[in-house]
Write a structure and sequence with these properties.
Organism: Natronobacterium haloterrestre
EC number: 1.5.1.5, 3.5.4.9
Helix content: 25-40%
Bound molecules: NADPH dihydro-nicotinamide-adenine-dinucleotide phosphate
Function: Catalyzes the oxidation of 5,10-methylenetetrahydrofolate to 5,10-methenyltetrahydrofolate and then the hydrolysis of 5,10-methenyltetrahydrofolate to 10-formyltetrahydrofolate.
GO cellular component, one term: cytosol
Number of helices: 10
Protein name: Bifunctional protein FolD
Shape: globular
Length: 301
């Protein structure tokens, strides 16, 4: 019998509030003749990537962002993708775009990112945007870390002075989140420990934290024994594991939910935690990009 007292942080609800607020900002932009536009670029036919791209387009439709899509053949030379990127950089209707990862092996993703106009880089991955973020002058916060910050804020979790342990040091989650949380800012001011596959005694690092963010891509890596009493647990992980159901798989996080929830004061579920926030923050960055490019001030949530 499990005994879950932890508050379940509802990412769907928080994301929905953010989308509502963005809808107002989008109307303001549209009234000024500047409806925001987001493009997605997909090279190849990876089914998971196709699903992500479809979701992003649906999200745009719901809030009134114009969406565009570009398909590039998976066998095409990298130059074909670069040409599409150059076209998007010049297209005034497209305020932001993303090149869905992963790209095929013969294409260098870093080079792809470098070619994206930093003003339209709504993923926040371009070196200029990474540098600005580290320097405390972010133009676009990467969507997943930004979503984690918004979830913490919505759950009333003060990061100031908190010990935060992040499991994972990727360029899209762990590193930018660590950089955001150490900023001298209201939603920063944390003391951050970043763990990875070479970390010794991971459990000791997570157990002593006020906030644990798991972003390792390792199913149920963090269990209740690794969580301190009353800590806040944010599970970024989305992992497919075999299951005896119609689909043949289910999605699990990087946290063993049941045991961690027995120790935590608040915890995000998978699905329904960080995932919807990542999608909402892409819309946020698109609205911000449009506002900056069109010179129309809007209130962002
Ligand atoms: P990466 O594979 O790029 O990075 C994983 C990181 O975790 C690496 O730094 C790796 O260490 C570390 N790691 C892996 N295993 C362990 C371990 N056993 N102990 C300690 N550290 C470990 O993954 P991403 O950052 O791209 O994604 C992480 C997870 O988040 C995935 O499940 C992904 O699907 C999910 N995700 C979810 C999103 C959402 O919106 N919900 C968005 C983005 C990602 P090292 O560097 O040493 O290899």
């Amino acid at each position: 019998m499990t005994d879950i007292d932890a508050e379940i942080i509802d990412g769907n609800a928080v994301a929905s509030e953010i989308r509502d607020d963005l809808t107002d900002a989008i109307e303001t932009l549209a009234d000024a003749g500047a409806r925001p536009g987001l493009a997605t670029v997909l090279m190849g036919d990876d089914p998971a990537s196709e699903t992500y791209v479809n979701m992003k387009q649906r999200d745009c439709e719901e809030v009134g962002i114009e969406s565009y899509h570009v398909d590039v053949d998976g066998d095409a030379p990298a130059e074909e993708l670069y040409d599409e990127i150059a076209t998007l950089n010049e297209d005034d209707d497209v305020h932001g775009y993303i090149v869905q990862a992963p790209v095929p092996d013969h294409v260098d993703y870093r080079e792809v990112i470098r070619r994206v106009d930093p003003a339209k880089d709504v993923d926040g991955f371009h070196p200029e945007n990474v540098g600005r973020l580290v320097a405390g002058d972010a133009r676009f916060r990467p969507c997943t870390p930004h979503g984690v910050q918004k979830l913490l804020e919505a759950a009333g979790v003060e990061t100031e002075g908190a010990d935060v342990t992040i499991v994972g040091r990727s360029d899209i989650v762990g590193k930018p989140l660590a950089n955001l949380l150490i900023q001298k800012a209201d939603d920063g001011n944390a003391t951050v420990t970043v763990c990875h596959s070479r970390t010794e005694d991971l459990a000791e690092k997570t157990r002593s934290a006020d906030v644990v963010v798991a972003a390792a891509g390792a199913p149920e890596l963090v269990d209740g024994s690794m969580i301190g009493e009353g800590a806040v647990v944010i599970d970024v992980g989305v992992n497919r594991v075999d299951a005896d159901n119609e689909k043949g798989y289910e999605l699990v996080g990087d946290v063993e939910f049941e045991s961690a929830a027995e120790k935590a004061s608040a915890i995000t579920p998978v699905p329904g935690g960080v995932g919807p926030m990542t999608r909402a923050m892409l819309l946020y960055n698109t609205v911000k990009a449009a506002s900056l490019q069109e010179g129309v001030d809007v209130e962002l949530p």
